[in-house]
Specification:
Layout (H helix, E strand, L loop, with lengths): L1 E3 L2 E4 L5 H18 L12 E3 L4 H18 L5 E9 L5 E4 L9 E6 L5 E2 L2 E3 L5 E2 L6 E4 L6 E3 L2 E3 L2 E8 L1
Antiparallel strand pairs: 1-2, 2-10, 3-4, 4-13, 5-11, 6-10, 6-13, 7-12, 8-9, 8-11
Length: 162
């Protein structure tokens, strides 16, 4: 575990096989399970609360590790599988859609794309995508975003904790 200010990094959090399984499951199910929002950059690119055994097991593992890493008793708020095609990005924001959210985490499911780093305003740290790497941070408090995906497709498991 690496700790840089408010960001925790867990390399090898998920295996390459687990990540490949989640990408395959996402691709096979996105057409019927995707969420459509009229006001979101994520419309059609998210499976909310995926009922998939590996995603659920990794979410439980994340709760345990982040609880230990922060010293705070946390529980899972929600989680989503997200696809980021080339050209997509997310401007700086805080995670304030749910009142109970205290922490956020991103699990990178692949790294065969360019761009797509998670960045933090005011923190000298950039989350470089690496298959199986989990980064966690206080999403309500720390301004963060995603740099533009220049080529390829980025897949993530996003998690929020209360």
């Amino acid at each position: 575990m690496v700790k840089s200010a408010d960001v925790l990094t867990f390399d090898g959090f998920a295996t390459k096989a687990q990540c490949a399984e989640l990408i395959g499951w996402f691709d096979a199910n996105i057409a019927r399970l995707k969420i459509e929002w009229s006001d979101s950059i994520f419309s059609g690119r998210v499976i909310d609360r995926p009922q998939q055994p590996t995603a659920e097991a990794l979410a439980r593992k994340a709760v345990a590790l982040i609880t230990i890493g922060t010293g705070q008793k946390l529980g899972l708020d929600t989680h989503q599988l997200v696809i980021w095609p080339a050209g997509s990005e997310q401007p700086p924001h805080i995670d304030d859609k749910r009142d109970e959210t205290k922490f956020a985490a991103i699990l990178y499911l692949n790294d065969d794309f360019s761009g797509g780093e998670t960045f933090f305003e005011g923190i000298d740290f950039t989350g470089k995508p690496q298959t199986g790497r989990l980064i966690a941070f206080p999403g309500r408090r720390v301004l963060h975003g995603v740099r533009r995906i220049d080529s390829g497709t980025r897949y993530t498991l996003a998690l929020w904790f209360k």
